[in-house]
Predict the structure of AMMECR1 domain-containing protein.
Amino acid sequence: MASVEHCLYCFETLAAELQGRKPMTLDQIKKSWAEYISSTTPAAATTTSEASSSSSSSEAAVKQSPALRRLAASSSSSTSSSSSSLSLTSSTPATSLSSSPAPPEGEEVASSSPLFITWNTNHPRHGYILRGCIGTFEPQPLATGLSSYALISALQDSRFHPISPSELPKLQVAVTLLTDFEDAKDKMDWELGKHGIRISFYERGRRYGATYLPDVATEQGWTKEETLVSLMRKAGWSGREEGWEGVDLKVVRYQGRKEKLEYEGYKEWREWVEEQQGRE
């Protein structure tokens, strides 16, 4: 499951790149985060130290840190959509990220996973809007994949100009780890709000393919049929809408584990880190 530590790592990677310094590693952040939570909430020190690398640690951290608690509340109420690119060079329009139900308590965080990194910026009138998003369906070691895609999505998404240092305070990052890939029995064998889908099909000798991540359809208020037609259009299909059912669609369904963090939470933790370093 994606965690607060993963979000911190993305912010740390981007901030260090923009500020010209060396970033902390994922392992360093996990250790520092556990120490930070222990120092700021002494009553939770034992629980946090015992589960610092698990998803329950991330959940506890959000509950125990006032800033992150506010961030979690803000995240849950947000209804803005995202867009995603699938690789370093290709993109898929209007694809949004989603989370599925949390895994059982104590489930270990994966060391390698397909992933998407989304950057949103806080607009004064529209709330959080997309600023960059790129991911991959190929499993990535998290220690390298998160940092790579944090920078690629922030600086190389061709739909936007690169994120600048002045934008950092307005940013929110969302990390989604993709799981449970399955071949659907047919084009309707998936659940709205639970599954993301990848479609592929051939038309006049040309292969088409595209994806929507799990919460796109529900955010847009689409039915399954509307979702599939929209996804076909985004793949480049130009046939008559009423003829979509005659197309032989291959569908792969999947789920996503997601965590969000706003800059305020990163800044609070980062200032604590610098204070500790100043004491050494």
Observations:
- Residues 263-279 form the longest helix (17 residues).
